[in-house]
Amino acid sequence: MNDKTLRDLRRPSATKSGEPPKITFPCDYSIKVVGDASEDFTAMVCQVVSRHDPTFDAEKIQVVPSRNGRFQSVRLTLRATGEDQLKALFAELKASGRVHMVV
């Protein structure tokens, strides 16, 4: 995922002045990671997220299979410390070759 995609995915609605509100770091940051369903997909996602957020609690994730069972979405909340952390996380998830989308 390139920098523009990350910004576009997480850009809140514009304010009355036309400028998008900025995220105030650190903050709790929710994401959904979608990939092919497999026994170890959730574990792989949790390992990657833990490298970027040592305080990540895997007990609070939610795994949702697609209707036909081909895909899984892993919904989680991490402690975001800055834009660089999020860019690195999204890049590592994409580089795994197993993630189709992060929103």
The overall strand count is: 4
Averaging pLDDT over every residue, what do you get?
A: 88
The quaternary structure here is single chain
Spatial order of the strands forming the largest sheet: 2-3-1-4
Order of helices and strands: HEHEEHE
Beta-sheet strand percentage?
25-35%
Number of helices: 3
Note the gap between the termini: 11 Å
CA-based gyration radius:
14 Å
> What is the helix fraction of residues, given as a range?
25-40%
In terms of per-residue confidence, which ranges show pLDDT below 50 for 5 or more consecutive residues? none
What does this structure look like?
This protein has 103 residues and is an alpha+beta fold. The protein contains three helices and four strands; from the N terminus they run αβαββαβ. It has helices spanning 3-10, 41-52, 83-95, and strands spanning 27-36, 62-65, 71-80, 99-102. A hairpin with a 5-residue loop joins strand 2 and strand 3 (71-80). The N and C termini lie close together (11 Å).
